Amino acid sequence: MTTTAVREPVRPAPPGAPRRPRPGRVRRIGLPYLLLLPALLLELLVHLVPMVIGIVMSFKELTQFYIRDWGTAPWTGLGNYQVSVDFSAPVGEALLHSFLVTVAFTLLSVGLCWLVGTAAAICMQDTFRGRGLLRALFLVPYALPVYAAVITWVFMFQHDNGLVNHVLHDQLHLTDKPSFWLIGDNSFWALLTVSVWKGWPFAFLIVMAGLQNIPRDLYEAAALDGAGVWQQIRRITLPSLRPVNQVLVLVLFLWTFNDFNTPYVLFGRAAPEAADLISVHIYQASFVTWNFGTGSAMSVLLLLFLLVVTGVYLVLTSRGRRAASDA
Hints:
69% of the residues lie in helices and 0% in strands.
């Protein structure tokens, strides 16, 4: 004789009682966080831990005498920061000059990268024979390793047998004599040339992707209404690319302002005064003079500056988006 188990009826929960999450649902919700945990731990090890150590070092008198055991270096409080921002003293004056050079270099480089990249992306929108090959060639400077790309420019900027002087002086006769491009005031323009040549393909790639989302019907309707090419770019292309450009300009600004590889490979450990970017200047203050406390303080000041600029930029662009949507 078999007996059947009688199930108790499921009683509905009271109206005000909280619902208990099901075990399967909890697993589904917690699985993405569990998968992100290794990446989060690596992010902490690679970025946050060195950042905290650098901030601690900025409050210490960490010189070459305490390299073996930097934990025993005496605390200086805000002494390193006071030395860095004392613009009447040699250290502060040199840091201010490097900061101004970096600001000018960043504004010119970002503006030219955006301008060249946007113009190239717009020209590559129409279908023609060989468009795919040209797109691939445009991305070559971005795909090349930094050292291989910049060291090629080092040979091209040579005074005696460089390609730049050969073209400008020997062939085009634009200069009276061959120029020194890696020393003196010309070093700024040499650095700017390499930076724009290396950075504009990234702007070209991002803008080209953004142009794919603009319907072609808008251009056809504008052409029927009598709008020319410049009016279409001004009234359709640029307003449609505004969200893309906001992110692109911010990324280019951060990359260019913090660029260390390009000037280091181009000029070596000691950059000329006209091309003394703040990244190389902090490197010299830390690893050349062996004053890691002052170099760490300069790095923290640079971090704070970039955080402020990024925050102000994001606030202004968000207000611009709200104003455009309300209009």
